[in-house]
Here is the input.
Amino acid sequence: EAAVRLNPEDAEAWTDLARAHTLRGDEGAREAALRSALKLGVPAPRAHHFLGEIHMARGAHAEARAAFEAALEQDPTQRVSWRGLAEAQGALGSREDAEDSLRRYREASR
Here is the structure.
């Protein structure tokens, strides 16, 4: 929280704060911190990824897919987002897309 107070325009500080809220079990504060990071309008692939995780947990698969896609648009090397995208695509019945995303996940793991 101190990092956000010192630099409220730092998306990574907001994302780190979201992670701290996760560890405390405060999902509402976690989501609010992630949305604060994204409102800054700067690249924040981790924030998009973590928001995708929230959407997946809620069963909001289309929103999760969009969040993982946004994360990968900003950082295609973010391996874990390929896996999240594959899971969202699979849940939406997009089998070929899910297989392609899993392939990209495996390639990024090498």
Notes: The mean pLDDT is 95. The radius of gyration is 14 Å. The helical segments are 2-6, 11-24, 27-39, 45-58, 61-74, 79-91, 95-108.
